[in-house]
Amino acid sequence: MQLDLINFTKRFGDTTVIEDMSLSVSSGEMIALLGPSGCGKSTTLFAICGIHRIDQGQLMFGGKDVAHLPSQSRNVGVVFQNYALYPHMTVAENIAFPLKVQKMNRTDREAMVRRYAELVHIEALLERRPAQLSGGQQQRVALARALVRQPDFLLLDEPLANLDAKLRLEMRSEIRRLQQETGLTAILVTHDQVEAMSMCDRIALMNGGRIVQYDTPTSMYERPENDFVASFLGNPPISFVSGAGLGQSEARVARYGIRPEGFGPQFGSALSGRVTFVETQGREDLFDVSLTNGEVLRSIQPAGSGIRPGATVQWGVAQDKLLRFDQDGRRL
């Protein structure tokens, strides 16, 4: 089912948090609301599920405006950062809770619980209580509870924030698998660019209560609308330098953006600099190179180069990956 948020405005008292924002999510698509803390991404999600009232605009579920319907009348499944499981209930009872509210008969309810427990691989845990589960297992229970009601939309609010690095990696692929298998339209709220880029079809990057770019992960990374987008995506982050640092003199260009994979010895020897920092990351090394004018470029190279801090290098820039920005930060 398609979701359309049209000219959405949200205020808290006299403060306008989001003003006149529009967003469309195609049926079966998974998108991310990505951005720094306070940008309005969770506020948007809470407005979609009905926790927050929409002050102005329309919220269309499959072409029907549901902006003024209470949350219980919107068929959405929500997974929160803290899982929000009922501690006194077993896993089976937690998953079954939405079906019990719908007054589904016990036989059908138990069959549905079994089906969705198997879908998220927790069928052996149905008699346990949340306190007996790991963080990853609790997240799977929360997913099963959201999915069992067969929602029109799946909404995920920072669902991986409380997991360790290994579990985050596992659950990223697991949530994406579930979304694709069920064909649900899904919205993920996250501040983690890796989650957004690896899990979603498109990203709505937000800043200051507005969407600054809405695009596929690849397009957003390679063709950012402005320097904010360029700096938010990418790890290690992009480097910005003046034309003087690169020996360039294009009149309209205020500065250049160069990602670490676009600077190194494989691109020639046009720039001279001193290595000021080396970080070994297993199969690759990260370098900071201070140019002759004091500006710094980052580079990622295969591990084992033997280059140490203090070394002088003559490296070049991939011209086809060079990003150009004007005085206002817009990409040229």
Note down, in words, how this protein is organized.
This protein has 332 residues and is an alpha+beta fold. It is built from 9 helices and 18 strands. The strands form 4 sheets. Strands 6-7-8-3-9-10 form a 6-stranded mixed beta sheet, sandwiched between helices. It has a 5-stranded antiparallel beta sheet with strand order 13-17-14-15-16, with no helix packed on it. A 4-stranded antiparallel beta sheet has the order 2-1-4-5, covered by helices on one side. α2 packs across α3, α2 packs parallel to α4 and α3 crosses α4.
Q: Summary?
A:
This protein has helices at residues 41-49, 91-101, 106-119, 135-148, 165-182, 193-199, 217-222, 227-232, 243-246, and strands at residues 3-12, 15-25, 30-34, 56-61, 64-65, 76-79, 153-157, 185-190, 202-207, 210-215, 239-241, 255-258, 263-264, 271-280, 284-291, 296-302, 312-317, 323-325. By secondary structure, the protein is an alpha+beta fold.
Class from helix and strand fractions: alpha+beta
Q: Could you give a short account of the major beta sheet?
A: 6 strands, mixed
Strand element count: 18
- Measured as a percent range, the helix fraction is 25-40%
Poorly predicted runs are none
Distance between the termini: 36 Å
Can you give keywords for this protein?
single chain; 332 residues; alpha+beta; six-stranded mixed beta sheet; 9 helices; 18 strands; 31% strand
